[in-house]
Write a structure and sequence with these properties.
Radius of gyration: 26 Å
Distance between the termini: 54 Å
Oligomer: single chain
Number of domains: 2
CATH topology of the largest domain: Four Helix Bundle (Hemerythrin (Met), subunit A)
Order of helices and strands: EHHEEEEEEHHHHHEEHH
Number of helices: 9
Largest sheet: 7 strands, antiparallel
Helix content: 40-55%
CATH superfamily of the largest domain: dinb family like domain
Number of strands: 9
Structural class: alpha+beta
CATH class of the largest domain: Mainly Alpha
CATH architecture of the largest domain: Up-down Bundle
């Protein structure tokens, strides 16, 4: 909390996301329900009309099972400011007014100031004593910080994988058709097998994130199993279809992860140790990009003379 007038509660937070994400966090029921309210509370949205004059009707469910009906009526909304009246059904008595200001700062961070304005100091004291408003505001905005961090990490990872898969399609398109099933040595993968390998690997990288470790105990066992799988692919279209399918499955899964999942510890393959989920997000993209580089190397061996655009 920061110093404020006697009838106000004010908290300032640095939210780890770009300011462009803030309207989604405030208006999409699936997102706002993940952070709204103090720790232990959950929220059910009945309707939301996120505009000046619009209303948000919702029920907050307390950790003891008590339900609290709420009504918010928005009075002003733009990209930098949200103001609303918080009303208490069924009488719709004014509970407090809120002003939320947002400012974009460097590094994709948004400075948010959340102000609750009560009728007078006595009302503020009563609500703080009865409902723990000060702690509630602090906990609610802390949950917002964590949810914004999760979304930023997940969407960055999904964007990176999408770019890597797009790169894979591009480099494959420049390999001559009669060389797609060719490799520079007996131990090297062909272009078809490299693409199938990336699709296969995305599947087990997803499984690893769920807490299921890769079944191969050693790199030798893993390599043998992977190459047996890859040999089933004899055309590039099927291999690319697998890559697209597995990348979509990977992105769909990571978008279901919760704040609590970020610091969950997972086992790495081949006895390489352990890692937090948040630190393993990049594996899908860098692994795919590494094998894109191998296909580009094949093009170099073939005497690549394309412009690449």
């Amino acid at each position: 909390m920061i110093k404020a007038a006697e009838n106000e509660l004010v908290v300032e937070r640095f939210i780890p996301c770009g300011i462009e994400l803030m309207p989604r966090l405030w208006s999409e029921p699936a997102l706002i329900s993940k952070w709204w309210g103090p720790v232990g509370f959950s929220t059910t949205t009945h309707s939301i009309d996120f505009r000046a004059g619009g209303e948000w009707r919702f029920t907050m469910h307390g950790p003891d099972g008590t339900d609290y009906e709420n009504l918010i009526r928005y009075t002003y909304i733009d990209e930098n400011r949200i103001t609303y009246d918080h009303l208490t059904p069924p009488t719709n008595e004014l509970h407090f007014r809120a002003e939320i200001s947002m400012e974009s700062v460097s590094g994709g961070v948004t400075k948010m100031t959340f102000k609750m304005i009560f009728v007078d100091a006595a009302t503020k004291k009563q609500i703080c004593d009865e409902f723990g408003a000060a702690d509630g505001l602090y906990q609610t905005t802390e949950r917002l910080v964590k949810e914004a961090e999760l979304i930023t990490l997940v969407e960055s990872a999904c964007s990176s994988l999408g770019q890597a898969v797009g790169r894979m399609h591009g480099v494959v398109s420049r390999v001559p058709a009669d060389k797609l099933d060719w490799s520079p040595s007996d131990s090297a993968r062909t272009t078809i097998h490299l693409v199938a390998h990336c699709g296969y690997s995305l599947g087990w990288i997803k499984s690893m994130l769920t807490g299921v470790p890769y079944p191969g105990a050693t790199t030798e066992i893993g390599d043998r199993e992977q190459r047996e799988f890859e040999r089933e692919f004899t055309d590039i279209e099927t291999a690319l279809a697998l890559l697209d399918e597995r990348s979509e499955e990977w992105m769909a899964y990571v978008r279901t992860l919760s704040v609590e999942d970020l610091n969950r510890i997972i086992d790495l393959p081949f006895g390489l140790g352990q890692m937090r989920v948040r630190d393993a997000f990049g594996a899908a993209a860098w692994h795919t990009n590494d094998h894109c580089a191998q296909i580009e190397y094949i093009q170099t061996i073939l005497g690549d003379r394309g412009w690449g655009f």
